[in-house]
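note to self — DONT lose this again. spent like an hour looking for the file last time. sequence + predicted structure for the chain T wanted, 291 res
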Amino acid sequence: MDDMHIRSLTTPSRLPVERRQFLFMTSCAAGYAAAAGPVGAQVITTSAEGLTAGEVKVASLGVDIPAYRAHPANGGPFPTIVVIQEIFGVHEHIKDICRRLAKAGYYAIAPELYARQGDASKYTEIPKLQEEVVLKVPDAQVASDIDNAVAFAKASGKADTAKLGVIGFCWGGRQVWLTAARNPAFKAGAAFYGPLAGQPNELRPKTVLDLIKDIKTPVLGLYGGADAGIPQDQVEAAKAALKAAGAPSEIIVFPDTPHGFNADYRPSFRKPVADEAWGKAMAWLKKNGAG
C-alpha cells in the first residue's frame, strides 16, 4: 500500500499499549521515516550554511508542538511559506524543503501536525501508521496548528506574513486546498499530488472536491498522470469544478508520472518532473503575492 491510500475513518480504536510511547511528540523526527523505506542514492541534502535553521516550539491549542523553520541568516522580514508534511510527518525530507525555500529567500516553517496523535517516523508499516496516527488527525486541529505556526513566524520579526503562501505534499497537498478554502490570509498555494476525493467523516468532513467552488486563493495543483492513488477522473472533475467556479486556481498533470514524484529519497522520484514542478510552484507563489 502506498502513502496516498488514506482510508476513511470509522470508529477510532484504542491505541495498543506499546504505541502510547509515541504520544506526545516533543521534537521533530530525526532522519527519515522508517515506513518510507530505504533512502535512495539520489536524495537531495540542502546545506544550512547562510541560514538560521532548526527546531522551534509553536504554541497551539494549549500545547507546544514541534516545528522546523528555516530562513536566511541575515536581513528580513522574508516572504513566508508554511510547509505541510507528507504522511510521514516532519522528517528530513520536509526539513530539506524548508531549507530549499530559505535558500530562495523565504521564511519557511513546517509544524509537526501529528504531534498529538503519534510519531510517524517510528512506524515501519504504512497501514499501521495510517490507522494509529494519520486517520486520528482532525482537519480542525490541522487548521489551528497551521494558523498558529503563521502567528509564531510573524512574532519572530523575521517573517513577512503579508506575503504568505503554503506548499504541501500528498497528505499535505490536500491540506493546501483546505487551507486555501478557509483562510484568505494565504495569498497562494502549491499542492503536490494532494488527494481530491474520499469518504467524509467526523474528523475529515469535507473533500477537496466538496470545497473547490469556494476556493478563492490561487492554488497550483501538481499531479502525476500515472498516480494509482489519485485517479485521473478525480483530477478531471477538479479541473471542471475550478473552471465552472471561475476559480483562480490551476491543475497541471505530468503524463506517465507516479505519485510522490518530488520525494527525492524514494523510488518514485522523477527528477526532471520534480524540477519542472518545483519551478512552476515557485513562479506561481511569487506571481500571486507569496514572494
